[in-house]
Amino acid sequence: MQRIAILGSTELSQRLIHAFETTGFARVVGLLDDFVAAGEERHGRPLLGPLAEAPALARRGAFDAVAIGIGYRHRDARRRAFAFLREASVAVATFVHPGACIDPTARFAEGCIVMLGACVDMHAALAENVFLSARCYVSHHVTIGAHSYVAPAVTLGGHTAIGECAFLGIGTTTADGVCIGSNTQTAAGAVVVGELPGDVLAAGVPARVKRQLSPRSPAGPTTANAGGDAPAPPGSDG
């Protein structure tokens, strides 16, 4: 069984500990967090240190891989953390829950996490570091861009294309062939029937743009307790 360190110490990390260990995927040996002192404990696991120490810890054999437990409010922090780990040659864990329904032709890049009850249909493709929550349905030929976060019970129609660092709120539904731009957020229950540009918040049935969001910043904190993203819409997860 591989040994995993989780980046972040919030409730999402607790959920990942539960998923990894109850399925026999991995033993979680500790957490990494820039904002909690090493040696403290969260969710029954020790804090190993900040993200910057992950390469040295990995070289010393403290863990085999890092799972990114940073939630939807900090998607750009998810992106920066993944890039840092990749540059440092630290393995990023990929996890597909055995209770998910996955077509053999579906593709998952490094760092993807697919939770219980998700269904991913033929020729769907998830790019690096995508988080797919419980009971999502990803139809055929859907593409989801790197570092995006999909909340529970989202349904994506065939040939939907999602940009990078997007967030789809609980119960979002898309029609076939819809394109949603990078860093765009949908509120809970949104029904997307047409193209959404990048950097907007959309809500409603049908979904309409409610406001512009600030483009993601290349600088800022990297772990789950950090700020820096636009406020998440209501009905969100993680």
Structure in words:
It is a single chain. The protein has 238 residues and is an alpha/beta fold. It is 13% helix and 28% strand. The chain has helices spanning 11-22, 54-59, 75-87, and strands spanning 2-7, 26-32, 41-42, 45-49, 65-68, 95-96, 101-102, 107-108, 113-114, 119-120, 125-126, 131-132, 137-138, 143-144, 149-150, 155-156, 161-162, 167-168, 173-174, 179-180, 185-186, 191-192, 200-203, 208-212. The chain is globular. It folds into two domains: 2-87, Rossmann fold (3-Layer(aba) Sandwich), CATH 3.40.50.20; 95-205, UDP N-Acetylglucosamine Acyltransferase, domain 1 (3 Solenoid). The protein has an eight-stranded mixed β-sheet with strand order 6-9-12-15-18-21-23-24, with no helix packed on it. Strands 7-10-13-16-19-22 form a six-stranded parallel β-sheet, with no helix packed on it. The two termini are 26 Å apart. Strand 1, helix 1 (11-22) and strand 2 (26-32) form a beta-alpha-beta unit.
- What separation lies between the terminal Cα atoms? 26 Å
What percent of residues adopt helix (DSSP H or I)? 10-25%
Q: Tally the beta strands.
A: 24
Helix vs. strand class: alpha/beta
Element-by-element helix/strand order: EHEEEHEHEEEEEEEEEEEEEEEEEEE
Please outline what is shown here:
This protein is of the alpha/beta class and 238 residues long.
Key terms for this structure?
Rossmann fold; 3 helices; 6-stranded parallel beta sheet; disordered C terminus; alpha/beta; 238 residues
